[in-house]
Each structure stands twice: as structure tokens, then as C-alpha cells.
Design brief:
By secondary structure, this protein is of the alpha+beta class. It is built from two helices and four strands; from the N terminus they run E-E-E-E-H-H. The chain has helices spanning about 85-90, 95-110; strands at about 5-20, 30-40, 50-60, 65-80.
């Protein structure tokens, strides 16, 4: 049975980013991604927040465009999960992905590149 939580992203900080772009037209690339995360559970049982350190890689199949980004996320859960690992596994991946794609899109746009990724529209 899946637990229902109200989850808010409290903070998102990029700590490292690398972009390798070897093509002029980034608009037509088909992108895919993967991510790894490390979780830091709250020290107190009444703390509703969890910090995740996430490294995401977005690339096209031929690696004409590769973006590797590391960021810290702090999520607040209501109610507080009794099992943080499963709560994070069940509820955070799509939130992590959406925010990382949105921010990566903004950074690439600021660098003068257009990239169409579902969910990255502003």
C-alpha cells in the first residue's frame, strides 16, 4: 500500500555542473538521463525534512550533448515517514527529475542553446 504524503521542495542548490556540447543544433536531440542519489536522513525523529545529494547525467545517444549536474535537494514530508528510504524511492524520483531538467534547460538557454525536453517549458 502506497502512503500519501504532501511533499514540498524547500531548497535546490547546484553544487557542480559540466556541459559538453559538440553540435550547433541542440533542438533536435533525443535526450535521456540517469541519476544517482545519496540520502541524508533527519537526525531527529520529529524532523520532517530529508536532504538528497543527486548527480544526474543527461545526454543524447551519440553524446553530442552531455550535461552532468550535482545538486542538493531538501524535501519536506507531511506526515513524517516511518521509512524514509521507501518514501524517498516512491515519491522523489519524478520531483528530482522535473527540477533537474527545468534547471538544466535554463542553464543551457542562458548559454545560447535551445533544448526541448518534455516538462522543461517555462
Amino acid at each position: 500500500m502506497e502512503n500519501q504524503y504532501n511533499i514540498r521542495l524547500l531548497t535546490f542548490n547546484i553544487t557542480d555542473i559540466e556541459a559538453s556540447i559538440h553540435v550547433k543544433d541542440t533542438e533536435q536531440l533525443q535526450m535521456s538521463g540517469s541519476f544517482q542519489l545519496q540520502m541524508r536522513e533527519p537526525k531527529s525523529s520529529d524532523d520532517p525534512t530529508v536532504m538528497l545529494n543527486v548527480t544526474a547525467t543527461l545526454s543524447d545517444q551519440e553524446e553530442h550533448l552531455v550535461v552532468k549536474c550535482t545538486a542538493n535537494y531538501v524535501f519536506q514530508f507531511d506526515p513524517i515517514p516511518s521509512d524514509w528510504i521507501n518514501a524517498v524511492k516512491e515519491h522523489c524520483p519524478s520531483l528530482i527529475q522535473d527540477e533537474m531538467i527545468r534547471r538544466t534547460h535554463q542553464i543551457l538557454k542562458a548559454m545560447g542553446h535551445t533544448l526541448t525536453v518534455p516538462g522543461s517549458e517555462e
